[in-house]
Amino acid sequence: MALAGRLAEADWESHRPAVFGAAYRILGSVAEAEDVTQEVWVRAATADLSEVRDLRAWLVTVTARTSYNVLKSARVRRESYVGHWLPEPLLTGPDAGAQVLMDELVSTAMLVVMETLTPAERVALVLHDVFDFPFGRIAEVLGSTPAASRKLASRARARVAAVEERPRASRAETERVLKAFKGAADAGDMAELVELLDPEAVYVADGGGKVTAARRPVRGAETIALLVVRQIEIRRPDAFQIIEVNGRPALATYRGGELVWLDTVEIADGRITAFRRVANPEKFAHLGHI
After folding, report:
1. How are the residues of the chain apportioned to helix, strand and coil, as percentages rounded to the nearest 5?
2. pTM given for the model
3. pLDDT at 160
4. 4-15 pLDDT, tens digit each
């Protein structure tokens, strides 16, 4: 059934999680996704929707087109980003201020891999795998053909398949390992830290040039353990909290009430295989004081 004229606020609120969710998966940035969501709202509120039969699909289509344009320009900025770029953390769970459409593509590990995709591959994957768009409609968003859109989604899916196939630790185990890691790091217990890290573990930090952070991946349990202990000696944090970020437990570390680090991990056989630390304060602005 077609809508009658203008968009009702209640209709918008029911679809906002999908709009924001599409923008965030494509962009990997909360701030940029919020900007796109606001732009879509303004456009929808002023558009004549009397011919629109599927409001959700219309809103997601507008979101995808807008996000696609933003992502293409954002790639230029990210190429000049100081150090390693990590996705802007998205607060989920009971502390989240708004509902977000959740699935595996919103996880930090998946977003890291999606950052290696081209803008067109990323849009095609999100629209097809999350929103079940036919390739004909995806082609309209990308200005391509259905066959080309199918190939884009297929290539993207092949890239993210490795993440989907990794064994995933339970929420309880992830929280246990994070707390144990934090305790060992605070105590400067190198032996315990090395035991909690896989020998081939990889540490990646995102300081954005705003704070001191490793600009290249750090590999190996002993090297990572030493780095983490030295960082605590320098920053001297005084509090921590386990929160839910991107659908998984994360370790938030504070000093004087200010968030200084947000750590997410991947775990296999009880050991951390990937450790990601967001330290860029600009990526914490939307989190506030938790």
Report:
1. 55, 15, 30
2. 0.86
3. 87
4. 556 778 788 889
Burial class (CB in 10 A: 0-12, 13-18, 19+), 10: exposed
Rounded-to-integer distance, Cα 64 and Cα 33, Å: 11
270 in Cβ contact with 223 (< 8 Å): no
CA dihedral 259→283→219→231, nearest 10 degrees, is -30
Distance CA 65, CA 60 (A): 9
The residue with tokens 């879509």 is 40
Q: Which residues of the chain have pLDDT under 50?
A: 1-2, 289-290
Angstrom distance (rounded) from CA 221 to CA 192: 11
Residue range 35-92, pLDDT digits in tens:
999 999 999 998 888 888 999 999 999 999 999 999 988 776 777 788 888 999 988 8
Closest CA to 273 of 171, 180, 161, 197: 197
CA-closest candidate to residue 176, choices 93, 272, 90? 272
Residue 192 Cα distances to 23, 150, 203, 270, angstroms: 40, 48, 17, 13
Residue with tokens 């081939």: 200
d(Cα 152, Cα 169) in Å, to the nearest integer? 30
The contacts found for 76-81 with CB under 8 angstroms, 24 or more apart, are: 78/115, 81/208, 81/209
The predicted structure's pLDDT at residue 77: 72
Q: Measure the N-to-C terminal CA separation of the chain; round to a whole number of Å.
A: 43
